[in-house]
Amino acid sequence: MNREQRLARVFVELADTMVADFDAIDLLHTLTERTVSLLDVDAAGLVMADPRGRLQVLAATSHTARLLELFELQNEEGPCLDCYTSGEQVVNVDLNDAAARWPKFSTASVDAGYQSVHALPLRLRKRTLGAMNLFCSDRSTLTSDDLAVGQAMADVSTIGLLQERNVRRQEVLAEQLHTALNSRILIEQAKGVLAERAGIDVGDAFRRMRAYSRQASRPLNSIATAVIENAIAIEELQKVSEKSPG
Amino acid sequence: MSSSRVQDILADLVDVPGETVSLPDQLCVACADALPVNGVGLAFMSGADHGGAIAATDGPARTMEALQLDLGEGPCVDASRDARPVLQADLARTGPSRWPAFGPGAVGAGIAAIFAFPLQVGGIRLGVLDLYRDTVGDLDDDDLVVALAFADAATVLLLHLQGSTELGSGLHPQLSDPIEDRPEVHQATGMISVQAAVGLPEALLLLRANAYATGRPTLDAAQDVVLRRMRFAPEDDHHE
Question: Are A80 and A130 within 8 A, CB to CB?
Fold first, then answer.
């Protein structure tokens, strides 16, 4: 499949996902995964500023401590912080040349195996809510076509995050963002519960909950709640993940 | 930066020698002083059930908390059930249709705006912080940040109140730390709840107590749990 075909397929998948009662966090994970494959980058994450101005990870293609640390560091310095502050794309930065700009972030990123980095704004009219962060293991440069695709994925993320169409009022925005942030915490807690019950790592626990959520057509946060309340048998989650490819 | 604001709020609650007012009451008073509101109430909530006011400033806030408890409806009920803030800048316009009993009662008592913040950490649902005002209008961005800092501080307070931590005389040093919002902390909370056979609130308390006892950030202890370098045993003694 060429990229246009793959892109078309992604949009069909999104249209199918964004029906009533969809789960924003699950959608954002799908978006990061599809972005990595469409742009041929190595890792992606979505960060959003909480109402206190801290950048929080909402979704990422990997949950390794190393990658999480790279997002966390950007509360001090890095492409997401610059992108969030300016509202502009920060792209095609060679991390080997970024020591002066982001001393800690560039070192930690190179140590984690990345060579270049990009951040695309999550924009709501004149506001910037956060950024989509892309990492490349080689020094690949994203073309203007790549960036157009990446920005489209970032824009869809913003739409997915704000499930109410009319977010003109600051209040509604604050309410919406709070919901997404709390849902993220709930899912992390459920990952821990399932990891411990099933004797697996937290990444596997997340994959099982997601696979089950899709198969049962229930939002991820309701699955997370059921896991925490011990209302789903581990065996049920196990069965689904064995059938599902990933 | 903002976590130091939460720390300041909590730290201010201790530095009153011979203070007889409860910590939650002190927090309500400090919150009312820091924001352009007339009253502040703090309620225990269990899902959509009002568990009673823990504290409130004198006057309308106390009345409004009692009203929400009696009627079983109102902004704090919605905020807790839906896990999202309920910000009503013009209660006379929006309140009566949303809350047929509470809305007219609140407007009749002179309340013009209500802002209710759920005190939650994912699946840990502790209560709600309610702000009441007698004039119409939004909280501006700066006020919202201050209100959220008080909500964070109240969350820490309620977490420890729910546990067996003694709050009577002064604030436990551990209590003045805000809850670290990092994925590993929440994952570890979930793991500990299974290991120690306790609920999520108790699991988070155990994690924080361990971090405090070993003199390190909660995140460090959480990483040890997630990487399975540390386990928590069931606390049979405490749970019969």
Answer: yes
